[in-house]
Structure formats: structure tokens, C-alpha cells
Design brief:
This is Acetyl-coenzyme A synthetase. One of its GO terms (cellular component) is cytosol. GO terms for molecular function: acetate-CoA ligase activity. Pfam families: ACAS_N. The protein is of the alpha+beta class. Among the domains are: about 35 residues, no CATH class; about 60 residues, no CATH class. It is built from six helices and six strands; from the N terminus they run ααααββββαββα. A hairpin with a 2-residue loop joins strand 2 and strand 3. The longest helix is centred in the middle third of the chain and has 14 residues.
């Protein structure tokens, strides 16, 4: 393909305007209803504070949802402490979903494997043990 045609093709891709609406069935089962978008638009910071408190487990609650004082650096959930591994795995096991599949894996030659929340939690705990004696610097920000 000549260089100018490649440039035109790339330019066309940068201005994609087609829309692909979801099926009626998919939209009916969606969690993100119009009311959720309206709530977010009415008070964005309040929306994210509420969502994060309802959907995540915090070790220490945050004092401020967003700090833009050092823009363009954004600091979200200032003062809060969260255990990412707990939120990604442990809380699902505690809620009775340990045998639910968390990851479907497919390798190059087509081999597949499923990992449940309970299996992943155990693997993370095994990998954590050799690191437990190390001192990690406290996160800033």
C-alpha cells in the first residue's frame, strides 16, 4: 500500500463514527442503567465516593474523594487504605463465591484452565509467604 493511502486509512480509523448499540436483551440485563449515569453527572465526586464505599472494602476510609491541588496529578481517595488482593479475591470467597470461576485461561496450543476465587486466593497466599519478611515502603499520595 502506498504511503499516502496508508496515511488516509489511518486517518479514517481515527474518525470512527459508527455506533454498535447493544441488543435489547443485553441492555435489559445491564447494571449501568440511565439512572446510574444521571447520578454520576449530577455529582461526580459524590458518585465515586458512594460507589467506592459500596463496592470495595476499605482498611481505612478515605478523607477526600479527589485532590487536584497538584494538577495534572490526580490523587483519588486521599487518606484511604485498601488491600487490593482482599478486594479482588478474599471477599468473594468470604461471600460464598469461592467455587465460582474467577479466570478462564486459554493457552496458545488451545489448552484451557479455570481458576476459582478460592484457588487464586490460595495461590496468592503461597506466593506472599516468601515476601512476608521483606519491609515494603509505605505508599505515598
Amino acid at each position: 500500500m502506498p504511503e499516502n493511502e496508508a496515511g488516509e486509512a489511518l486517518e479514517n480509523l481515527l474518525h470512527e463514527n459508527r455506533k454498535f448499540p447493544p441488543s435489547t436483551e443485553f441492555a435489559a440485563n445491564a447494571v449501568a442503567k440511565a439512572s446510574l449515569y444521571e447520578e454520576a453527572a449530577a455529582d461526580r465526586l459524590g458518585f465515586w465516593a458512594k460507589q467506592s464505599r459500596e463496592l470495595l472494602s476499605w482498611g481505612k476510609d478515605f478523607d477526600q474523594t479527589l485532590d487536584w491541588s497538584e494538577a495534572p496529578l490526580a490523587k483519588w481517595f486521599v487518606g484511604g487504605e485498601i488491600n487490593v488482593a482482599y478486594n479482588a479475591l478474599d471477599r468473594h470467597v468470604e461471600a460464598g463465591n469461592g467455587e465460582r470461576v474467577a479466570i478462564y485461561w486459554e493457552g496458545e496450543p488451545g489448552d484451557t484452565r479455570e481458576f476459582t476465587y478460592a484457588q487464586l486466593t490460595e495461590e496468592v497466599k503461597k506466593q506472599r509467604m516468601p515476601l512476608k519478611h521483606l519491609v515494603w515502603p509505605k505508599a505515598t499520595g
